[in-house]
Design brief:
The chain is an alpha+beta fold and about 280 residues long. About 40% of the residues lie in helices and about 15% in strands. It is built from six helices and seven strands. Strands 4-3-5-2-6 form a five-stranded antiparallel β-sheet. Helix 4 runs antiparallel to helix 5.
Length: about 280
C-alpha cells in the first residue's frame, strides 16, 4: 500500500473538521446579524433642541427686523411660526386675532405689577376653549402651590417665612388671574402657508410673526417670544416686590408640558402635582 493511501483517512478527518469549524462560524454570524436587526434603531435627534424667538439679552428691534425679512422671503410649504402679540390678550381676543389660523399652543404669564410670574405654555388646538381649560388647570396648580407655601411658612424661621408668604401671595394672584380668564396670553405657535403667515403679520395687535421652517418636532422646540413690555432688550421684568429673589426667566423651556417649571428664586415646592402633558400637532 502506498503513502497516498495511508494518508487519506487523516486528510479526510482534517477536511471534515475544517468544514465543521466554518459551519459553526457561519451560525454565529447569522445569529449576531439577526439579533442586531431585532434591536430598535436609536433616535439620533435625542438631545437636539431647536430655539425660536429672541435670546435672553438680545435686541428686540433686531429680532423683529430679522423675523420680518425671513417672512418676506419665505417660500416653503406649510410650516410652524411663532406669533407674538403687542399686548397681553384674553382667550377671546386671542381667538379673534388668530381667526382662521391653525394653532398648536399659546404662551402666557400673569402680568402682576412688579413681579416675575411664571411663563406657561398651554396646548390650544381649539380657541378659545382650550385656552380657558388650560388656564383653569394652571389656576388649580397655583392654588396648591400657594397652600404649600403657607404650610411651610407656618413652621419656618422669620427670614424664610417672609419668602414663603411672598411666594404664596404671588401664586394666589396667578391662580386668581388664570381662573378669571385674564389678559395673559402674549404669543402663540401656529402652522400655516407663507401667504397666510404674511397676512397674519398685518393684523392689528400682531407684533411679530417669526417663521420657523426648521422646526420638525414641537416637543423639542423652545419658544422664547419677547414680552409685550420688552421694547429694547429681552430681559425678565423687574421684580420690585418685597422679598424678591430672582423669579422666572424669560423663556418657555418646558415645551412638552402644560406649564413650565416653577420660577427660580422662590422656595422649592414639592407638594404640587407635576404638570400634565399637552397634545402637539
Amino acid at each position: 500500500m502506498g503513502d497516498d493511501d495511508t494518508a487519506s483517512p487523516g486528510r479526510s478527518r482534517a477536511a471534515a473538521l475544517t468544514w465543521l469549524v466554518l459551519g459553526c462560524v457561519l451560525v454565529v454570524l447569522v445569529v449576531a446579524v439577526a439579533q442586531r436587526r431585532d434591536r430598535p434603531v436609536g433616535d439620533r435627534t435625542v438631545g437636539e433642541v431647536t430655539r425660536v424667538g429672541v435670546a435672553a439679552g438680545g435686541s428686540v428691534p433686531a429680532y423683529r427686523r430679522a423675523a420680518a425679512a425671513e417672512l418676506a422671503r419665505l417660500d416653503a410649504p406649510d410650516g410652524w411660526a411663532l406669533v407674538t402679540f403687542a399686548a397681553y390678550l384674553t382667550p377671546d381676543r386671542v381667538a379673534t386675532a388668530l381667526a382662521g389660523t391653525p394653532v398648536s399652543a399659546v404662551i402666557a404669564r400673569v402680568p402682576l405689577p412688579g413681579r416675575q410670574t411664571e411663563i406657561v405654555r398651554i396646548a390650544a388646538l381649539r380657541l378659545p376653549d382650550d385656552v380657558v381649560g388650560g388656564m383653569a388647570e394652571v389656576a388649580a396648580r397655583k392654588d396648591r402651590e400657594a397652600a404649600d407655601y403657607l404650610t411651610r411658612a407656618a413652621t419656618a424661621d422669620p427670614g424664610l417665612r417672609r419668602e414663603y408668604d411672598t411666594g404664596a401671595a404671588v401664586a394666589a394672584g396667578e391662580a386668581a388671574g388664570y381662573r378669571a380668564g385674564c389678559a395673559c396670553v402674549y404669543a402663540a405657535v401656529v402652522r400655516a402657508a407663507p401667504d397666510a403667515l404674511r397676512a397674519l403679520a398685518d393684523r392689528p395687535g400682531v407684533r411679530v410673526v417669526d417663521p420657523a421652517p426648521e422646526v420638525t418636532r414641537l416637543d423639542r422646540t423652545v419658544f422664547t417670544p419677547p414680552l409685550p413690555e420688552q421694547r429694547d432688550v429681552a430681559r425678565p421684568p423687574a421684580d420690585t416686590g418685597p422679598a424678591s429673589g430672582g423669579g422666572m426667566g424669560d423663556s418657555s423651556e418646558a415645551a412638552p408640558t402644560v406649564s413650565g417649571p416653577s420660577p427660580t428664586g422662590r422656595p422649592p415646592v414639592t407638594g404640587s402635582d407635576p404638570p400634565n402633558p399637552t397634545p402637539t400637532s
